[in-house]
Specification:
The protein has helices at 5-17, 24-39, 43-47, 68-75, 113-134, 158-161, 164-174, 192-195, 227-232; strands spanning 95-97, 105-107, 144-150, 182-188, 206-207, 210-211. 9% of the residues are buried. The longest helix is centred in the middle third of the chain and has 22 residues, at 113-134. The chain contains 9 helices and 6 strands, in the order ααααββαβααβαββα. It is an alpha+beta fold. The radius of gyration is 23 Å and the shape is globular. Strands 1-2 form a two-stranded antiparallel sheet. It folds into 2 domains: 5-110, no CATH class; 113-239, no CATH class. InterPro entries: P-loop_NTPase (IPR027417).
């Protein structure tokens, strides 16, 4: 087998210059190696709060538990780059703090199916938006993105349906995009829980595939005040976070 050094050098140069999601895992590995070479320590082991097997359940006895807040403090970066996350050589498990105590960890697998679906749906959306934001198509950057969510409320308990718009806005606002400036979201839905967070001027009613105006359409925005919510006993969660029942 014959290797062309100039070709290999060019490939390495292109990989080093690539800061997109395509080379993310490679950059994570290189950062991990740099940390070991620089200090001789495994940074994830030194940041782990767990010092003994007794502090975790048996299945996590030999694990490192690291919070994102600690990683931010260590690297002194408010906007945490994904390059600094542990490389794929680790078997990762997402743990959540208990609302009652931050010393109690709840594994992702212990969540309910509704909680998992909520996280998976928006996690997948954010994942793809980040990927789009990281690349250029023939030199053209994406500043405007259209997202269509068709019947996203399917299989959701009403408790989670009422949170969808609010959670979506919170997740989008938490991301620092490099190029994307606007995300236009379209919901294809018949869920009153989602419609109740959408202003009437942004709702298109369809009947037999054609635009139609329902008699009670004016009641759709903030309809969480209505008998539907009150009878079912679900407190309102509005998109602006100011009004609750």
């Amino acid at each position: 087998m014959i290797f062309n050094d100039s070709v290999i050098d060019e490939i390495v140069r292109q990989i080093k210059a690539d800061q997109t999601h395509v080379t993310l895992k490679l950059r994570q590995c290189l950062n991990f190696i740099d940390q070991l070479k620089g200090s001789g320590n495994n940074i994830f082991e030194s940041l782990s709060k767990i010092k003994s097997r007794q502090e975790l359940k048996t299945e996590f006895g030999d694990s490192f538990v690291i919070s994102f807040d600690d990683l931010k403090l260590h690297y002194k970066q408010d906007v945490f780059p994904l390059d600094l996350l542990p490389p794929p050589i680790y078997k990762a498990e997402i743990l959540f703090y208990s609302e009652q105590s931050k010393s109690v960890y709840i594994p992702y697998n212990y969540l309910s199916s509704g909680e998992k679906q909520l996280l998976n749906n928006f996690g997948a959306l954010i994942y793809h938006l980040r990927n789009i934001d990281s690349v250029a198509d023939n030199g053209r950057l994406y500043e405007n993105v259209n997202v269509i969510l068709e019947e996203i409320e399917l299989y959701f308990h009403p408790e989670y349906q009422r949170m969808i718009v609010k959670v979506l806005l919170e997740k989008l606002q938490s991301i620092v995009f490099k190029h994307i400036k606007r995300v236009n979201t379209t919901f294809v839905t018949h869920s009153p829980f989602i419609l109740s967070d959408i202003p009437l001027c942004n709702v298109l009613f369809l009947k037999n595939g054609k635009p139609a105006m329902e008699k009670n359409a004016r009641k759709c925005f903030w309809s969480k005040y209505s008998w539907i919510i009150k009878e079912w006993g679900f407190p309102a969660v509005f998109t602006d976070g100011r009004i609750c029942l």
